[in-house]
Give the backbone structure.
Amino acid sequence: MAFGGSLMATTFGRTIVSVWSGEFRAALPFYFEPHPLTQFVREMETLHRTLKGSATLRPMWDSSAYLSFTVDQLGHVTVTGFFDYGSQEVRFKHVTDQTCLGPLLADVRSCVDAPAT
């Protein structure tokens, strides 16, 4: 089963999270404050460098939405996320390998460096 994802910066604090796995596809707006994004970048850098631990992006004021990456002792990366909009919910989980971390980190850094639109 193929899995992928990306973050596309639109304005600081809002991005589009795209995920796909097999026939499942979603492109969802994700809102967060500057501090959680900065913290997520640091966690992703450590995760990419050490291949240990986890990195989670969770808004300060919305306790339900999150995007998380966890590396196990074999280098497998478990990607999980949850987003809700009114009565609609998207929850996903997928296991992949550590090759996703470099491109993801580049995407996340582009969100930090992107000018507001």
Remarks:
- The longest strand covers residues 76-85.
- Residues 3-113 form a domain with the Secreted effector protein pipB2 fold fold (CATH 3.30.2450.20).
- Strands lie at 3-11, 14-21, 24-31, 53-57, 66-71, 76-85, 88-97.
